[in-house]
Amino acid sequence: MACRRIRAAWWRGTAFAIALALPGPATFARAPQSADAPLALSPPFALSVEQLFAWEATGPLADAANVSRVPLAGRMVDPGPGPDPAARLDPKVRVLFAPDGMNNFGNYLARQPRFNLYTFTHWAQIDVLSWFAGTAGHNVMIPARPWVDTAHRNGVKVIGTAFFAPLAWGGSAKTLEAFLREEGEGRFPAADRLVEIARHYGFDGWLINQETDVSPELARRMARFVAYLTRIAPQGMEIHWYDAMLPDGRVQWQNAYNARNAPLLQDGATRVSDAMFLNYEWTPAGLRAGAALAEARGRDRYALFIGADLWPARRNAQQAFGNRSWLRGLREHGDGPALGSVALFAPNFNFNAGGEFGDFRANPRDAEAFYDGEARLFAGDDRNMAAGNSTDAMRTGAWEGIAALVPARSTIAKLPFETGFNTGHGLVDARDGRAVGGPWHDMARQDPLPSWQFAYSPAAPLRIGYDFQRAWQGGSSLRVAPRDALRSPAEVPLFLADLPIDARTGLSVVVIAASPGYALRLTMADGSESLHPLTAKGVWHERHWCLGRFAGKVVRRISLVIDRGHPKSLNLGKIAIRSSCSPAT
User: Fold this and answer.
1) Disulfide engineering: 21 pairs with which of 38, 283, 316, 477, CB 3.0-4.6 Å?
2) How far apart are CA 88 and CA 309, in angstroms?
3) Is the pLDDT of residue 399 over 90?
């Protein structure tokens, strides 16, 4: 993804080049894939323009193992205030999540014999995963099935990338000219092939990242190409344009939606693209003008994805936790609606930026720092999505967290529902609490994870996270550990749901509880509650309850509740709600 005035530099041995804030027009350079990457930068994950035209579903450039057959799940949005009654949420905002160099992090199709590979857990707070990658010679980047499978189970779309590099980093107008071959009545074979590839592999669209300076004639052809691609894309497929090339062919990032780049989203009555990813040096005034312009041209302001470049070394950008005010700049006023959607670029800082974020890529013992970086991005400096943290953050100048802007989404709307809190990798592979294998990683095996990671109210001295030393199924469990005595009972909301209960419905929970004082609470849509105490045992213990007395009701929230006093830690290994009931135990 091109940025502002930057030049390439190596950082801590990572497999991609990052940018330092230095004068002069430039962009991100792509480096060869590192030796520790799961697979090479090659088909089925990356294609040159020549390979794109040669691609066939049954040919040597395709791979049946990369086909996702998991449909995109429907989602519900938290209908109430969520766990934070003071939250200033905008349910219309969409969040795009774009790790920089997904080819380095996710190009595998089978289980990997390694724990410390990249994973992601906050699906409830994002809407689109952008498979961002590309080099001057590898222009079409195709998402990997394990990630598409898990994203779709969480109702999150996945889009691939068509990338054309800046001239300074090997890009060529000839490459783009070959890609934009036009036939007949405005037909573009490359667009037809992109749609065919997305449909074949089962993902949801494309980001067109065109950063090569070209002639005005070729730029006009590019605009026609994008409009054609958007027109032929089937329902549900999204075509995103990145704010780089202007209609006259020059690459000049506008950092706003304005009269210069507006025709690449909407040109009169022609819908050219479904969304535009705005570059990062925006101002609130520019966002306000852009939102007004989009609406004047008949487009929703939320089709504008406002870029946030989170890489810590880029200090004149949004910079994870170094710049704590940019999220507020997205709003019309202090607690008003947003001026667009949000595009989080380089959120992989927790994986390989080093420093305060640890070095999980090189050291599996840094897992806690890796997960903490992601939790902090979404929950804020206090790591709490509840207890009015957005209000406190505004007063103190702390980082609020993405969840201060967007409500949780959930796909948990039918039985059976089951989770073992497995994040998709582990130091061991467990079955019923017993290790059956060593270190592993497979995003396709990730369980449904909490809608809020993590929330607790009232504010309490709790430490919540994934435990890779104790797992019931897969590689992890959820651990809750009070740091001090609780002065009042605490609630830890876990899952937003819409689960109907009938006379046969049953609940099962597997825990290790070092002391009494814990219970699982089901809150119904009508406000009634079902409380299920969790027995204190020092080993994995499974309990069952029948829920027939709540027949006809709907489970809206699944929470953990903790009594006041001095409870010790608890590990949740499984929660299951099924259409079958075992006798209460």
Assistant:
1) 316
2) 23
3) yes
